[in-house]
Amino acid sequence: MSGTHAQRDELGEFLKARRAALTPGTVGLPAPGTPRRVPGLRREEVARLAAISTDYYTRVEQGRLQASAPVLEALARALRLDEDQRAYLHALAGKGPAPPRRRTAQRVRPQSRRLLDQLTEAPALLLGRHMDILAWNSLAAALITDFAALPESRRNYVRLAFVDPSVRGLFTDWESTARACVAFLRMDATQYPDDARLAALVGELSVRDPDFRVWWAAHDVASKTSGTKSMRHPVVGEIVLDWEVLSCATDPEQQLMVMTAEPGSTAHEALRILASWSATDDSAPRDLSAPRDLSAPQDLSAPRDDSASG
Q1: How far apart are CA 157 and CA 261, in angstroms?
Q2: Looking at residue 231, what is its pLDDT?
Q3: Do 130 and 55 lie in a common domain?
Q4: Which residue among 127, 214, 246, 299 is least crowded, i.e. fewest CB within 10 A of its CB?
Q5: Whole-angstrom distance, CA of residue 164 vs CA of residue 171
Q6: What is the pLDDT of residue 4?
Q7: In the chain, how many H helices and how many E strands?
């Protein structure tokens, strides 16, 4: 299936999910006189709100017609889409930025490694495609998990949040964190709808976790920008951190996620304790771009370099 066909299929599923999440009352339509067999708005109701014909809307939803930008805006208003959902709708319809033609292996620049190394008071992760963890600093490893001890294929933020018991147990409100991860992943998926690695990740998580399967089918989307993480750490106890995501100018598919705490706060003191605790392990920032001798015995307790997963 071509990327265009895959995106049109996804567009239809997204529109169906969004109209299923609304009721006539929430969009100012009169309540139906008879019970509905399925929840949400009917196609003709969405078409009426968007001031287009039901046939036109049906063909868009079924992937038989590419909607114009004005129609997409009308549908966004009719379905009460937020800014992230609106951007997602336009991207699926081919009205957003075109993705790169060829995917290349992601490499961590020396400057990025140096930046991680110098972030000594803030946990930081360098995220790649599909929220793969490309690099991290020692404080992030102390806060979340020993990433170096994990096989490369398992160094993925979404995967860890769902299937790693120790990581999953860190989050005080796991459901909110996990649902946000799914929304971030689906937003990223617009760039490469036919990506085999993404399909494998979604397939694995759908089989292993029923919550992921339900939330992925809901077609919720969000951009990674900023927020708050509430965690229960085995060493420092309860800790609430602000997080911010910064895009890499040299590779837009790499993003730096930095977690911070207000100076003088309990969380800031907890980070200082974690930094002191992790320093005894002499852990330097690790990434997937440095070569590794796979023929040599691997000591997971010692720092090591790892090769890029691509």
Answers
A1: 21
A2: 96
A3: no
A4: 299
A5: 12
A6: 67
A7: 13, 6
CA angle 19, 206, 145 (to 5 degrees): 115
Q: What is the band of 33 on the pLDDT scale with cuts at 50, 70, 90?
A: low
Strands 226-233 and 237-247: antiparallel
Full residue range of the structural domain in which residue 189 is found: 110-287
In this structure, are residues 98 and 115 in contact, taking their beta carbons and an 8 Å threshold?
Answer: no
pLDDT at 299 over 60: no
- Examine the domain organization and report whether 76 and 117 are in the same domain: no
Instruction: Give this prediction's pTM.
Output: 0.72
Are 113 and 285 spatial neighbours (Cβ–Cβ below 8 Å)?
yes
Residues 194 and 278 in one domain: yes
Give per-residue pLDDT as tens, 112-150.
999 999 999 999 999 999 999 999 999 999 999 999 999
Please state, in angstroms and as integers, the Cα–Cα distance from residue 119 to each residue in 115, 136, 139, 256, following that order: 6, 10, 9, 12
Please state the rounded mean pLDDT for residues 71-86: 90
Q: What is the dihedral of CA 294, 296, 301, 304, to 10 degrees?
A: -60
Residue 285 has pLDDT above 50, yes or no: no
* Nearest C-alpha neighbor of 112 from the set 255, 242, 244, 243: 255
The tokens describing 27, both together, are 């969009």
Tell me 129's DSSP state. Answer: G
Residue 47 lies in a domain: yes
Beta-bridged to residue 241, according to DSSP, are 229
**Which residues make Cβ contacts (< 8 Å) with residue 306, sequence separation at least 6?**
148, 152, 286, 287, 288, 290, 292
Q: Is 85 part of a structural domain of the chain?
A: yes
Domain with residue 134: its CATH number is 3.30.450.180
Position 98 scores a pLDDT of: 45
Distance between CA 212 and CA 252 in Å, rounded?
26
Length, in residues, of the chain: 310
Amino acid letter, 267:
A
Whole-angstrom distance, CA of residue 270 vs CA of residue 289: 31
Mean pLDDT of 95-103: 54
